[in-house]
């Protein structure tokens, strides 16, 4: 109605709350997303995986023992199994083996309780949210605050899920369409580490697409030989045919203390740059979550963001959106 403030356009560079305010609440819970919005984040980031009945829910990986209390539910003991997903063999419980109704009986748990004891205090309190609930939250908070709150979803393991009969990118677009957000001006970015799914998305939606890249290796769908090849001038021109921007590992912005040419090279072909992930716990994260983190910067989230802002980035992912917003204001 007319009593509601009109949404304002996004400030730039955009602050993307990585898994919500995941430095301060258990990741991928409505509480983590809501706190991120309270702290001024422009976008909240859900990683998405499908349930057995094809509902997209927010989890960083389909294995859920590390971030829920599933292991303490005797009724699900026989769901424990071993799978190989994109080359990694994991024993545990998997989202795609649970209906949404079953998943909703679980409660979120902090992944890194030794590092984030304050978060662990919330263990057992929050449900696993659906994409639909996250969209509703973003819309409600947009109405209440008069700021535009966007979502920045990532479909995890899209080729794997399509192969086992759960095509997640098409589900995502269907959900966005239902929300009136399947358009170029919707407050949405879709991101992926894979390539073929982004090219498929380019054909079915006008929503802005972000090609994620890691510091090592290459896309799980084998579409290009490596992320290093993607960063060559020819590789970047190819990405620009389907994507709006790049989501590099923040380590790719630097060679020692000197900037690499990544930001300039991406901008030269019209790609925006949104690096990930600025957080305080760099040193102590398990190796598979460390992604180019520099031990020398432990604790200096603001300093790291400030240096990246100096390179002309267009947005950034952070576990600490309040630090992100304050650092942007001071820059
Ligand atoms: O999506 C950007 C960043 O979130 C990639 O890392 O592993 O946290 O999804 P991850
Ligand atoms: Ca992500």
Task: Provide keyphrases for this structure.
single chain; 331 residues; alpha/beta; TIM Barrel; four-stranded parallel beta sheet; 12 helices; 15 strands; globular; binds SN-glycerol-3-phosphate; binds calcium ion
Provide a quick synopsis of the model.
This protein has 331 residues and is an alpha/beta fold. Helices cover 29% and strands 16% of the residues. A four-stranded parallel sheet has the order 7-2-1-15, with helices on one face. Strands 9-10-11-14 form a four-stranded parallel sheet, covered by helices on one side.
Topology:
Blueprint: E1 14-18, H1 30-38, E2 43-45, E3 47-50, E4 56-58, E5 81-85, E6 88-92, H2 100-103, H3 117-120, H4 131-145, E7 150-151, E8 154-155, H5 158-163, H6 168-178, E9 189-192, H7 196-204, E10 208-213, H8 227-230, H9 233-239, E11 245-248, E12 254-255, E13 258-259, H10 262-268, E14 272-273, H11 301-309, E15 315-318, H12 321-330
Helix pairs in contact: 1-4, 11-12
The protein binds SN-glycerol-3-phosphate (G3P) and calcium ion.
Textual characterization of the structure:
It is a single chain. The protein has 331 residues and is an alpha/beta fold. It has one domain: TIM Barrel. The chain is built from twelve helices and 15 strands. Strands 7-2-1-15 form a four-stranded parallel β-sheet, with helices on one face. Helix 1 (30-38) runs parallel beside helix 4. It comes from Sphingomonas taxi. This is glycerophosphodiester phosphodiesterase. One of its GO terms (biological process) is lipid metabolic process. Belongs to the glycerophosphoryl diester phosphodiesterase family.
């Amino acid at each position: 109605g007319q009593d509601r403030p009109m949404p304002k356009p996004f400030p730039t560079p955009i602050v993307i709350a990585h898994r919500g305010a995941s430095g301060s609440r258990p990741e991928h819970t409505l509480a983590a997303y809501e706190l991120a919005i309270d702290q001024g984040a422009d976008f909240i980031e859900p990683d998405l995986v499908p349930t057995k009945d094809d509902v997209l829910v927010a989890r960083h990986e389909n294995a859920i023992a590390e971030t829920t209390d599933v292991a303490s539910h005797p009724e699900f003991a026989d769901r424990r199994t071993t799978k190989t997903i994109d080359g990694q063999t994991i024993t545990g419980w998997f989202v795609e083996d649970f209906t949404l109704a079953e998943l909703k009986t679980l409660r979120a748990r902090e992944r890194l309780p030794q590092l984030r004891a304050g978060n662990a205090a919330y263990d057992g309190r929050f449900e696993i949210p659906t994409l639909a609930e996250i969209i509703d939250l973003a819309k409600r908070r947009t109405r209440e605050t008069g700021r535009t709150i966007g979502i920045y979803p990532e479909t995890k393991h899209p080729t794997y899920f399509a192969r086992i009969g759960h095509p997640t990118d098409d589900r995502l677009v269907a959900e966005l369409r239902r929300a009136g957000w399947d358009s170029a001006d919707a407050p949405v970015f879709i991101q992926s580490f894979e390539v073929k799914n982004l090219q498929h998305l380019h054909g079915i939606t006008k929503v802005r697409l972000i090609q994620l890249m890691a510091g090592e290796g290459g896309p799980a769908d084998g579409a290009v030989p490596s992320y290093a090849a993607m960063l060559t001038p020819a590789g970047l021109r190819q990405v620009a045919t389907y994507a709006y921007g790049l989501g590099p590992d923040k380590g790719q912005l630097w060679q020692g203390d000197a900037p690499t040419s990544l930001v300039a090279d991406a901008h030269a072909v019209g790609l925006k740059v949104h690096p990930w992930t600025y957080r305080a716990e760099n040193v102590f994260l398990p190796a598979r979550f460390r992604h180019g983190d520099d031990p020398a910067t432990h604790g200096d989230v603001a300093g790291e963001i400030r240096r990246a802002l100096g390179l002309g980035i267009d947005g950034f992912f952070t576990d600490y959106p309040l630090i992100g917003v304050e650092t942007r204001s001071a820059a």
